[in-house]
Amino acid sequence: MSSRLLSRLGLRWFPLLCMALLIVGLPVGCSLLQHKERELVFRIEPGTASWYSGLPKAVQEFELKPASFKAGQNIHAWWYPAASKDAPAMLYLHGVRWNLTGQLFRIEQLHALGFSVLAIDYRGFGQSHGDLPSETTVYEDARIAWERFQVLQPDPRKRLIYGHSLGGAVAIDLAAELGRQSPVPVRGLVIESTFTSLADVATAVADTSLPVRWLLSQKFDSIDKIADIRMPLLVVHGLDDRYVPPRFSEQLFAAAQQPKRLLLVPGASHNNSMSLAGRTYREALDHLMQSKMPTQAITHSTSRDGDS
Fold first, then answer.
1. Distances in Å between the alpha carbon of 261 and those of 3, 92, 145, 171, 291?
2. How far is CA 28 from the centre of its chain?
3. What is the pLDDT of residue 90?
4. Domain range 5-46+56-290, its CATH number among 3.40.50.970, 3.40.50.2000, 3.40.190.10, 3.40.50.1820
5. In terms of Cα–Cα distance, which of 128, 132, 157 is closest to 144?
6. Could you state, in order of their start, the residue ranges of all structural domains in the chain?
7. What is the pLDDT of residue 32?
8. What is the pLDDT of residues 249-267, one digit of tens each?
C-alpha cells in the first residue's frame, strides 16, 4: 500500500456498501460487490509514478509467461543484481496502487545495502497484463516469481523474501507454503508496514462496528498464517504510520515463531522506515542473514528478539 492508499479507498462508505448489497442478496449484487471491492483494495494507478526518472542501467527487465497463463497475460519483472556475484538476494513483493516505477526508491535502497533484488508487478499492474488482480492471482504471481528467483539465486542460504504493506500479506502466504518444505528453501522473511488481515485494517480505518470480515471476499489473513512460516523473521513498522497501525505488526510478531525480530522505527511513516532506520535496518538484515535456517518445526515464543 502507498502512503495515500487507505485515504483513497473510500473505506468509510465501503462497509455500508457491503451491507447494502448483502441485504439485497442478488447474485449480480454479489458480483458487483466483489469487483468493486477488488478495485478498492488494489487501486491501480496507470502509467509511471511521478517521481520515477528511469531505471538504473544494471537493471534487467524480462517477462514471465508460464503455460498456465491465458493469452496476453504476463508478469513483468526487474532483476537488479548486486555488484558481488555472491551477494544475497531478495524477492520483492510490493503493495497496492503503485506499480514497480513507484517502488524503485525502496528497491534501490535494498540494492545499496548489498542485495540483488528480483521485483515483480502483479498481473494488472504496470507492464504486467491481466485482469483486475485478486487475492488468488497475486498469490499465484508470487509463486511464479519464486520459481525464477530460485534460478537467479540458487543458494537457499542467500534468499530472502520481502513484502511491503499488502505485499507483506503476499510474502507471508508464500513463506507459509515454503515453510512446509524440509529443508526450508529460504533464509528468511522481511515484512514491512503490513497488517494482520485486510478486514482488520479496513475496520480500523473506517472506524466501523459493521462485520467487515464477513463481507470481504479478499481476506489476506496473515495472522492465521504467520506461525507457519518456519524461518527467521524481521518485522518492520514505522511508529508514525497513519494508514496501517503499528499494532498490527506487533500482533503478527507476537503470533510468529522464533527466530524473530521486531523493528519499530520512531517517526517513520508507511513508506520511509528503511531510510529513517538507517544503520539499525542494516544491522537487523545482517542479523537475519546470520540466523540459523530451521529444518524442523520451531516452538512458539513471544520475546522481541530471539534469533539464534
1. 24, 19, 26, 17, 11
2. 31
3. 98
4. 3.40.50.1820
5. 128
6. 5-46+56-290
7. 77
8. 999 999 999 999 999 999 9
